[in-house]
Amino acid sequence: MRYFAPTSLLRNASEIAAKRSGENWIDPLVFDRYGSGPLDTPRNRETLLYGMVRTLDQACFDSVAVLGQRLRGEGKRLMVASTPLNPAWKAEGDPQGRTVAEFNQRMEAALAPSGGTFWDGDAAQVVGPEAFFDAIHLRWSAARTYSDALAEALKLGSVAPPRPTLLSEQRAPEEGAPFPGAGERRRGERRQT
Q1: Of the given ranges (36-40, 97-101, 127-131, 189-193), which has the lowest mean pLDDT?
Q2: What is the DSSP string of 53-89?
Q3: What does each C-alpha distance from 12 to 8, 21, 27, 29, 30 come to in angstroms?
Q4: Which residues, in sequence order, are CB contacts of 152 under 8 Å at separation 6+?
Q5: C-alpha distance from residue 129 to each of 39, 40, 92, 139 (Å)
Q6: What is the pTM of this model?
Q7: How far from the centroid of its chain's Cα atoms is residue 22's Cα?
Q8: In a 3-state reduction of DSSP, which class is residue 140?
């Protein structure tokens, strides 16, 4: 009962039919054949809705660092990408860009010990202001643009997929050894053309 919220339950129950039919265009529960729920409307929210984050929780960065180290121990590398932010929202809540800069710096610091990768999807400026539904949500029409830029930035798909490794063959890389990543090939792999 700790997280039970009767008011929220009743509100959600009263709105579910409109969400499933698509009549509720702000929060639809209409799925495509892939099970995703694209936000496909020419309209905008009347407001940016979300307030700017004022303080960053160190526990989040600590968790990223722990995950990165665990993956490193498994012979993998953690890749983190941030999403674009609505320029109007940043101008209103973080005009000097201090919070966003602090987030980026702390994320890079959290990933550094494990050799993880961070891509600043906001600084990449791959979408314009018209791509946003509110402060942070992208329209479906912009999702492909962002995904393509992310794949290019992380060089996803540029290296042939590695052959499956048997559990008995897995080992963590030596301390300081680079992980095979974008631009590097494992022995026996060929670059796809």
Answers
A1: 189-193
A2: P-S--HHHHHHHHHHHHHHHHTT---EEEEPP--HHH
A3: 6, 14, 11, 12, 15
A4: none
A5: 16, 16, 14, 11
A6: 0.65
A7: 26
A8: helix
pLDDT (0 to 100) of residue 177: 43
C-beta atoms surrounding 47 within 10 Å = 8
Share of the chain above pLDDT 70, in %: 75
pLDDT band at 156 (very low <50, low <70, confident <90, very high): low
Q: Which two tokens stand for residue 131?
A: 């791509």
The closest alpha carbon to 38, from 150, 147, 141, 145, belongs to 141
Provide φ and ψ at 157, rounded to 5°. 85, 0
Q: For residue 22, is pLDDT > 80?
A: no
